[in-house]
UniProtKB/TrEMBL annotation:
Protein name as annotated: Myb/SANT-like DNA-binding domain-containing protein
InterPro entries per the UniProt record, alphabetical: Myb_DNA-bind_4
A matching Pfam family: Myb_DNA-bind_4
Stretch list, region Disordered: 175-199, 221-242
Length: 321
C-alpha cells in the first residue's frame, strides 16, 4: 500500500514527451539550418549581425519559431560544425579515391553552395600559378625544397587556406594543413602572392631607365672631353681665363644653384629651379616697382614746387599793378 501511494504521489510530477521532440535535427530541420546559415553568413560583420554569436542566436530564434522547439544556439553551432567536418573529410577522401571507393554525402549540394566562392578563389589562384609556371621555395628541417601547386582544391574555413604542395621529385607530399606549422604555410602563401604581383617588374623598368639616362650623360661628358682634345690637337688643354679680382670678391656674396643632371626623373630639381626663378623674378619686379614709385614721387615734388613758384610770381605781378 505504501509503494502504491508513493507511486501515485510521484505520478503527479511526471510528464511524458513524444519521442519526436528529442529528435532536434531530422532531415528537414537540418536542411533548414544549412539554408539559414547560407543565407545569413555573408551578412556577418554588417548591419545587425556583428559576430558569429549573433548569427547563431538569430538561427536559433528562427528555428524555434518555425518548428516550435526550444534549442540553444550552441547546439545549432555544434551541429553545423559536425556536418562541416564530415563534408571536408568527404571531399578529401573522394579526391584521393576513384570509382567504387568514393562515398556519398547527403548534404553535398548545399555545402557546395556554401563553399562555392572559396573553392572558386582556390581554383583561380591555382590556374594562374600553373599557367605562369610559378615555383616557390620553402625550408623545412634545414632542407630547401622547390614546390608547385597541385590542382586539387578543397573547401576551407575562413581561418585556414588549404592547398596541397608537392616536392619536385614527386616522392612525398607536403600538406601544410596537418603537419607543418602556420608560419611555414603563411611563408609559402606570401611567396605566391608576391610572385604574382607586378611590383618587381615595375621596379626593374625604373632601374633600367635610370641606368640608360646615366649612360647618356656619361657619353655626353666623354664627347665634350674628346672635342676639347681635338681643338688642341692632342696637346695640353686650353688655358684658363685670367683672374678677375672684382668678380672673385663678389662670388662669396652671391647665391646660385648647381645644375645636377644625375637625377633619376628630373622632377624635383626642375621644380626647385622653377620655384627659384619665380622668386627671383618677383624680387626684381618689386625692386622695379619701388624705383618707379620713387621717380613718380620726385616728379610730383618738382611739380608742386613749380606750382608754388608760379603762384608767387602771380602775386608779385598783382602787387606791382
Amino acid at each position: 500500500m505504501e509503494n502504491s501511494q508513493n507511486e501515485t504521489e510521484l505520478s503527479e510530477f511526471l510528464c511524458f514527451l513524444e519521442k519526436e521532440d528529442f529528435n532536434y535535427f531530422n532531415s528537414e530541420r537540418t536542411n533548414a539550418l544549412l539554408n539559414l546559415y547560407k543565407l545569413n553568413k555573408p551578412k556577418v560583420g554588417k548591419g545587425d549581425i556583428k559576430t558569429m554569436k549573433k548569427l547563431w542566436e538569430i538561427i536559433a530564434r528562427e528555428m524555434s519559431n518555425k518548428y516550435k522547439i526550444t534549442v540553444s544556439p550552441a547546439k545549432f553551432e555544434n551541429k553545423y560544425k559536425v556536418l562541416e567536418r564530415a563534408y571536408k573529410k568527404f571531399v578529401e577522401n573522394n579526391n584521393k579515391k576513384k570509382g567504387r571507393g568514393r562515398k556519398e554525402f547527403v548534404y553535398e549540394n548545399i555545402f557546395n553552395e556554401i563553399f562555392d566562392k572559396k573553392m572558386a578563389a582556390q581554383k583561380y589562384r591555382i590556374v594562374v600559378a600553373l599557367t605562369m609556371k610559378m615555383c616557390f621555395f620553402y625550408c623545412k628541417n634545414g632542407t630547401s625544397h622547390i614546390v608547385y601547386i597541385m590542382a586539387t582544391p578543397r573547401p576551407s574555413s575562413s581561418r585556414q587556406k588549404q592547398f596541397v604542395y608537392k616536392d619536385f621529385d614527386g616522392d612525398s607530399e607536403v600538406d601544410f594543413d596537418s603537419d607543418d606549422s602556420i608560419k611555414d604555410r603563411d611563408y609559402v602563401e606570401s611567396e605566391s602572392e608576391t610572385s604574382l604581383s607586378d611590383e618587381g617588374q615595375r621596379t626593374i623598368i625604373q632601374l633600367k631607365r635610370l641606368w640608360d639616362k646615366l649612360k647618356r650623360h656619361r657619353k655626353g661628358d666623354l664627347a665634350e672631353e674628346r672635342r676639347e682634345l681635338m681643338t688642341t690637337g692632342g696637346g695640353s688643354p686650353p688655358p684658363l681665363p685670367p683672374p678677375q679680382p672684382e668678380i672673385d670678391n663678389l662670388l662669396p656674396h652671391l647665391e646660385f644653384e648647381i645644375n645636377n643632371k644625375d637625377d633619376s626623373d628630373g622632377i624635383i630639381l626642375n621644380g626647385n629651379a622653377e620655384g627659384t626663378k619665380k622668386y627671383q623674378q618677383g624680387a626684381v619686379n618689386r625692386e622695379r616697382e619701388k624705383e618707379h614709385l620713387e621717380e613718380l614721387h620726385k616728379v610730383r615734388l618738382e611739380e608742386a614746387n613749380y606750382k608754388k613758384e608760379a603762384a608767387r610770381l602771380v602775386m608779385l605781378q598783382e602787387k606791382e599793378k
